[in-house]
Design a protein that fits this description.
Helix content is 49%, strand content 11%. It is of the alpha+beta class and 637 residues long. This is Helicase XPB/Ssl2 N-terminal domain-containing protein.
Length: 637
C-alpha cells in the first residue's frame, strides 16, 4: 500500500485506514490514472486497457498466447500502484477505480445475444465422403506402418517419459507425415493399448497381434472412438511458455479440451446439407456456445485449429463439413460408425505388383501377410491409398539375417505377385545370398573367418576398416581388436555381407507368423538324439563327486542382511555389512531428482530393514531409480 501511494505521488501517512483512504482518493482521479498509463510502454498500456475491458481471468491469457505480455503489464502496473500485488496465485486484481478510468465514459460491456453468423459455401456430399475416405485410409495406413516399424525397432524414451522431439522428427520423416499426425498416431495407438514401453524403448504391446488381424473398418473405428473419448488434447505440442513438449508425456484429464472437440463438431453438424464453412466461423460459433472451452497455446492466432486438424486426419471432418463418421460420433452410434468405415475403406489386399525397378506396390490396405513379408525384406517408401516398398541389398540382407534363404524368400514373394517376379529382383536375391555369410564373425575370439582367401585379403587392406584393428593370422582368419557387434556393424556399413557365429540371432518380427495368420516356414530337419547313457553309471559318478555347497555369510550383519534382502546382489550386501561392522552405525544420503539432499544416521539394527527395503525397491526398478534419486550408504563417522 505504501509503495502504491509513493508510485502514484501520494504520501503514506497515518494508520492503515488513513492510507487506504488516501490511496482511493488518488485512484479516484481518472485523469491522473490515464496520465500515468500514457507513460508506460505501448505494449504495457495496451495490456492494461485489455485487462480493464475484458477482466483479468487467468484462462484468457492462455487462450490467446499472451501470457508473457500479460505478465509484463501486470508487473509494471503493480510497481506503479495500478494493480494490487497478490501473494496467492498469479493474478493481481485491478481496482475498480483504475478499470473505470481506463475504460472511459462511453464504455459498454460486450454482449452478443445471438450466435455469430457462419458463412457457408456449397460442397457436394460425394466430395465430403471421398475426402473422408481418403483421410481415414491414409491415417490407418500410417498407423500400420508405424506399429510395424516399432515391432522391429522400438523408439527410445526420454528419462522423464515420453518421446522426444528428435525421435518424433525421425518417425515423421520415415513415414512421410507431419508433426501433428505423428503425435496423433502415437497418442491414439497408446489409448488403444497397442504400445508398450520396454527395456529397449517404446514398442508394440501384447494386444497388437489381435488388433492387426482385425478388418480395416474395426481397426479404424477403435482409433476414432479413442480420439473421441481422449481425456485431454492428444496433439498438444507447446506449453504456456511456448516450449515444445514431448509426445506421450502424461497429461491430466482436461474437460475443456475434450469439450472443444464436442462443441466444434456440433457447430459443423448445424450446417445445411450440401454446405461447408471456414474454420474461423465454426470456431467462433463453438466458442459462443461454450465460452470456457480450452484453446491450445499453439492455436493462439487461430483458435481450435489443432482440434479441427485432428478431425480432418481421422476423416471425421472433410472439405469444411462434417462427414458421416463425425455424425456417427455425435450420436454415439458405434455400429453406424463401423458400417460407414466398411463402406469407405477397401478390403485388405493380399497381392502386390513387383516392378523391374526393385519396387513392390500394394493397392489399398496391405494384409498382415503382405506387410509383414515385405517389411522384412524391403523398405517402405510411401503409404496411403497404395503402399510402395523398395528392395535393396541391405533390405535383402536383413531378411537373410533373420534366417530365411533365397529360395524361400523368392517363393514367398512369388505367392504375393500378380505375375512372375522381375528378373532384376531374382538376380538381387541370389546375389545377396551368394555373398551372405562369406564373412563369419566369432564372438569368443573376435575373429573374422572366410574360406575365400582373396576376399579376406581385401578386407585386411580396406582403409575403411582401419579402426577395427585387423590382423591376418592365417589366409582364412583375421583377428579383430573391437567387439563383435562393432565389427559386424562396420563391415555391413561399408558394403560387406557378414554373419555372426556363436551368438543367438535377434528375434524376428516374423516369428509370430502363425499367430498373425501367416504361413509358417518349412520345418527343419530333426537331428537324431544322442545315445542314452546308462543311469547306473551316471548315479555312480554323481555319488563319487564331492558336494559343493555355497558358503553362507559368516558375519552377523551379512547374515541378517541376506535374510532381509535375499534378492539383493552380494556386492551391495557387502557394502551394507561393512558399514555396520566398522562403526555399528550407517550414514544414509539420498539425493532426489529435484537436487535436494537428505542425510540420516541410523544405529538401530531394526531400522536397517527399512533401509534395505528402500534400497531394493530402487535397485529393482532402474527407471524409478534414475528418476527418483540416488541412495548411498557408508559407515557413519
Amino acid at each position: 500500500m505504501e509503495m502504491a501511494l509513493r508510485a502514484l505521488g501520494g504520501r503514506p501517512r497515518g494508520n492503515k485506514a488513513e492510507k487506504v483512504e488516501a490511496l482511493l482518493a488518488v485512484l479516484a482521479d481518472p485523469d491522473r490514472v490515464r496520465a500515468l498509463v500514457r507513460l508506460a510502454p505501448p505494449s504495457v498500456a495496451e495490456g492494461l486497457r485489455t485487462m480493464a475491458c475484458t477482466g483479468t481471468d487467468e484462462d484468457d491469457r492462455y487462450y490467446f498466447g499472451e501470457f508473457r505480455r500479460h505478465r509484463e503489464a501486470e508487473q509494471w502496473a503493480v510497481a506503479h500502484g495500478l494493480l494490487a500485488g497478490s501473494t496467492w496465485g498469479y493474478t493481481a486484481p485491478m481496482p475498480a477505480e483504475v478499470a473505470l478510468a481506463l475504460r472511459g465514459g462511453d464504455y459498454r460491456a460486450p454482449f452478443s445475444p445471438r450466435p455469430p453468423v457462419i458463412r457457408t459455401h456449397p460442397v457436394a456430399p460425394e466430395a465430403v465422403e471421398s475426402a473422408s475416405a481418403a483421410a481415414i485410409g491414409a491415417f490407418l495406413s500410417h498407423a500400420l506402418a508405424l506399429l510395424d516399424r516399432l515391432t522391429r525397432v522400438p523408439v527410445p524414451l526420454l528419462a522423464g517419459g515420453g518421446v522426444g522431439v528428435r525421435e518424433l522428427g525421425r518417425l515423421a520423416k520415415a513415414l512421410g507425415v507431419e508433426d501433428t499426425e505423428i503425435r496423433l498416431l502415437l497418442a491414439l495407438s497408446a489409448a488403444c493399448r497397442l504400445l508398450m514401453p520396454g527395456t529397449e524403448g517404446l514398442g508394440v504391446g501384447d494386444r497388437f497381434d489381435e488388433w492387426r488381424r482385425e478388418e480395416p473398418a474395426a481397426q479404424a473405428a477403435q482409433l476414432i472412438t479413442s480420439w473421441w473419448a481422449f481425456p485431454s488434447a492428444p496433439t498438444r505440442s507447446r506449453d504456456a511458455d511456448g516450449r515444445t513438449l514431448p509426445a506421450l508425456r502424461g497429461q491430466d484429464p482436461c474437460a475443456g479440451c475434450h469439450a472443444a472437440r464436442v462443441v466444434l463438431l456440433h457447430s459443423a453438424s448445424g450446417l445445411p446439407a450440401g454446405q461447408a464453412a471456414d474454420l474461423a466461423d465454426l470456431a467462433a460459433s463453438a466458442r459462443w456456445h461454450r465460452p470456457l472451452i480450452h484453446v491450445l497455446t499453439q492455436d493462439a492466432d487461430a483458435p481450435l485449429t489443432t482440434t479441427w486438424r485432428e478431425a480432418e486426419l481421422l476423416g471425421v471432418a472433410a472439405a469444411g463439413a462434417l462427414s458421416p463418421l463425425g455424425a456417427a460420433l455425435l450420436t454415439d452410434d458405434e455400429n453406424a460408425l463401423v458400417e460407414h468405415l466398411t463402406r469407405l475403406l477397401p478390403a485388405t489386399s493380399d497381392t502386390a505388383r513387383f516392378g523391374s525397378d526393385l519396387t513392390a506396390l500394394v493397392s489399398g490396405t496391405p494384409s498382415v501377410r503382405a506387410s509383414t513379408l515385405l517389411d522384412s525384406c524391403a523398405d517402405r517408401e510411401s503409404s496411403g491409398g497404395a503402399v510402395i516398398w523398395r528392395f535393396s541389398p541391405t533390405s535383402i540382407r536383413r531378411a537373410m539375417d533373420e534366417g530365411t534363404t533365397a529360395d524361400r524368400l523368392l517363393h514367398e514373394l512369388a505367392d504375393l505377385a500378380e505375375r512372375e517376379l522381375p528378373q532384376a529382383l531374382t538376380y538381387l536375391v541370389h546375389d545377396v545370398a551368394r555373398r551372405h555369410g562369406r564373412l563369419r564373425l566369432h564372438a569368443a575370439t573376435s575373429l573374422i573367418q572366410s574360406d575365400d582367401e582373396a576376399l579376406l585379403a581385401e578386407v585386411a587392406v580396406d582403409k575403411r576398416l582401419a579402426k577395427l584393428g585387423l590382423t591376418l593370422l592365417a589366409p582364412t582368419v583375421l583377428a579383430c581388436t573391437v567387439p563383435l557387434d562393432v565389427a559386424l556393424a562396420r563391415l555391413r556399413e561399408v558394403g560387406y555381407f557378414p554373419v555372426a557365429e556363436g551368438v543367438p540371432a535377434p528375434p524376428s518380427p516374423r516369428g509370430t507368423a502363425a499367430a498373425r495368420g501367416q504361413r509358417t516356414p518349412a520345418p527343419r530337419t530333426v537331428r537324431p538324439s544322442p545315445e542314452r547313457a546308462d543311469e547306473g553309471v551316471l548315479a555312480s559318478r554323481l555319488l563319487a563327486t564331492p558336494s559343493i555347497a555355497v558358503p553362507e555369510p559368516t558375519t552377523w550383519p551379512l547374515r541378517e542382511l541376506r535374510a532381509l534382502a535375499p534378492d539383493l546382489p552380494l556386492g551391495q550386501l557387502a557394502l551394507l555389512s561393512t558399514a555396520l561392522e566398522v562403526g555399528g552405525r550407517v550414514a544414509i544420503t539420498y539425493r532426489a531428482a529435484s537436487g535436494a539432499v537428505t542425510h540420516r544416521v541410523i544405529s538401530d539394527p531394526e531400522l536397517i530393514g527399512a533401509v534395505v527395503e528402500a534400497w531394493c525397491e530402487l535397485r529393482q526398478d532402474e527407471r524409478v531409480f534414475s528418476v527418483s534419486g540416488m541412495l548411498s550408504i557408508a559407515p557413519a563417522p
